[in-house]
């Protein structure tokens, strides 16, 4: 199946470069281009996009607001957003994940990284830029609600999970793939996939990236001190 890609960036030259790259792949095609977030949301629905490459900084409705709008629209529940940013190590990392993005990538990424990001997002996996470590994201997540001490209430979200589902969620938050989790827990990858899907359904998570956010926000996983 062809991955339908929407490009959202206010720089026409950059969109053109991305379009040439994406359209050169046999398994993907650009189905639309947007210069601001509002247009990106409209086109995501009109063109039945699978993945949106979304610039964070755009005039009018920015990428973060547009991503929230896509995440909140049941009609767009299948759409995955990959944030593009010039600055990978800043608060945008967490804001992107919390807005509902499947991950983020620096605009300086290699072509193969960008194409790989599209495929990873389309498959429902979490995408973490190589230069932004999981520990960094964990620290940002931990700091994001520093004023909020309502951890017990938030941890109640996990009550619906079985013990095994919690165990799998911890491994997902650690960045492990289904195969790696299966090996560690000595079960089959299919069993892990079932637990992940059930956890996503119970917690209302769109994808694995959202599971990572929930794992840290509820205190199930704590950021490392290093």
Automatic annotation (TrEMBL):
<dbReference type="Pfam" id="PF00072">
    <property type="entry name" value="Response_reg"/>
</dbReference>
<feature type="domain" description="Response regulatory">
    <location>
        <begin position="4"/>
        <end position="122"/>
    </location>
</feature>
<keyword id="KW-0597">Phosphoprotein</keyword>
<dbReference type="InterPro" id="IPR016032">
    <property type="entry name" value="Sig_transdc_resp-reg_C-effctor"/>
</dbReference>
<keyword id="KW-0805">Transcription regulation</keyword>
<dbReference type="Pfam" id="PF00196">
    <property type="entry name" value="GerE"/>
</dbReference>
<dbReference type="InterPro" id="IPR000792">
    <property type="entry name" value="Tscrpt_reg_LuxR_C"/>
</dbReference>
<feature type="modified residue" description="4-aspartylphosphate">
    <location>
        <position position="55"/>
    </location>
</feature>
<dbReference type="GO" id="GO:0003677">
    <property type="term" value="F:DNA binding"/>
</dbReference>
<dbReference type="InterPro" id="IPR039420">
    <property type="entry name" value="WalR-like"/>
</dbReference>
<keyword id="KW-0238">DNA-binding</keyword>
<dbReference type="InterPro" id="IPR011006">
    <property type="entry name" value="CheY-like_superfamily"/>
</dbReference>
<dbReference type="InterPro" id="IPR058245">
    <property type="entry name" value="NreC/VraR/RcsB-like_REC"/>
</dbReference>
<feature type="domain" description="HTH luxR-type">
    <location>
        <begin position="154"/>
        <end position="219"/>
    </location>
</feature>
<dbReference type="InterPro" id="IPR001789">
    <property type="entry name" value="Sig_transdc_resp-reg_receiver"/>
</dbReference>
<dbReference type="GO" id="GO:0000160">
    <property type="term" value="P:phosphorelay signal transduction system"/>
</dbReference>
<dbReference type="GO" id="GO:0006355">
    <property type="term" value="P:regulation of DNA-templated transcription"/>
</dbReference>
<keyword id="KW-0804">Transcription</keyword>
<protein>
    <submittedName>
        <fullName>DNA-binding response regulator</fullName>
    </submittedName>
</protein>
């Amino acid at each position: 199946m062809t991955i339908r890609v929407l490009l959202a960036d206010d720089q026409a030259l950059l969109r053109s470069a991305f379009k040439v790259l994406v359209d050169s792949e046999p398994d993907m095609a650009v189905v639309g281009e947007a210069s601001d977030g509002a247009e990106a949301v409209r086109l995501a629905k009109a063109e039945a996009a699978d993945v949106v490459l979304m610039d964070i900084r755009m005039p009018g409705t920015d990428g973060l607001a547009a991503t929230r709008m896509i995440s909140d629209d049941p009609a767009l529940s299948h759409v995955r957003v990959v944030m593009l940013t010039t600055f990978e190590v800043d608060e945008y990392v967490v804001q992107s994940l919390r807005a509902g993005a499947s991950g983020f990538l620096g605009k300086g990424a290699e072509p193969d990284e960008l194409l790989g990001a599209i495929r990873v997002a389309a498959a429902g996996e979490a995408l973490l830029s190589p230069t932004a470590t999981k520990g960094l994201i964990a620290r940002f997540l931990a700091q994001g609600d520093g004023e909020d001490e309502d951890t017990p209430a938030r941890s109640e979200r996990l009550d619906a999970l079985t013990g095994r589902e919690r165990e799998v969620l911890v491994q997902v938050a650690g960045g492990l793939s289904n195969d790696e989790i299966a090996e560690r827990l000595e079960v089959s990858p299919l069993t892990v996939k079932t637990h992940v899907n059930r956890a996503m359904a119970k917690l209302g998570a769109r994808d694995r990236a959202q599971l990572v956010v929930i794992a840290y926000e509820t205190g199930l996983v704590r950021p490392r001190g290093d």
